[in-house]
User: Fold this.
Amino acid sequence: MRTWITVKFRLLLLVLGLSPAVGTAANLLERALDEREAGNAEAIASQKRIDSLADETDSLLQQYRSILHQIADLRAYNQQLQSLRVNQENDLASLERRLARVSVANRHLLPLVLDMIEVLEQFLERDIPFLPEERQKRLQDLKQLVDRSDVSLQEKYRRVLEAYQIEADYGGSLEAYSGERRSNGKSQVVDFLRIGRLALFYASLDRNETGYWDPSQARWKTLPKKYNQAVHLGLRMARNEIPPDFVNLPIATARRPAAGALHE
Assistant:
């Protein structure tokens, strides 16, 4: 294209009678065209660099915005962690105060547990002798429990309270059970009738003998034959074999025996 323009320019100069300057003018034209092409190429290259820089700028801008978003998220997260740390410190301080109170309470609780076990032992020794094996086993279990290091003090206290509750429940119940009665170095299998903690009777298995525990003398005494039927009826009521009803039985106290009535 450039050569064709140069040839046309030379022909034009010949027509105009300017042939001596044809070579110089053609050279000038060719030089101008070269400079123009070089300028166009440089402009294209510059535009490409501009486009590349624009793309790079857009990419950096996106990265910058992403970093700003991450920074905002981190600030919010740090604020949340700060609040959590403050709450944890407050909880820890509260827990330490509670532990201190528990420690003080434990120092008072252990002597209380030991005293309660001792009182329970004395009570069993003085109470009417019903279910002796069962009640003594419960007492011995408590004594062993209080020396165990793998059981918490709170659990020991709970077990002692449970034993007290069991003993308290005996006072309001009517019970019949079989067991061994020891008297004067001899033992006899009998049926026992317990009326709360008010009285404890026994009846031989052949029903020919009945008796009661005398707390004033801490020994068993035989009842007159006229009370045999009443004791038998009491045993049957305690076993839910017959409906509850009145029975006449002697009630022994620590001072003197007295006649009384049982109503279930």
Residues 22-126 form the longest helix (105 residues). Residues 175-264 form one domain. The chain is about 60% helix and 20% strand.
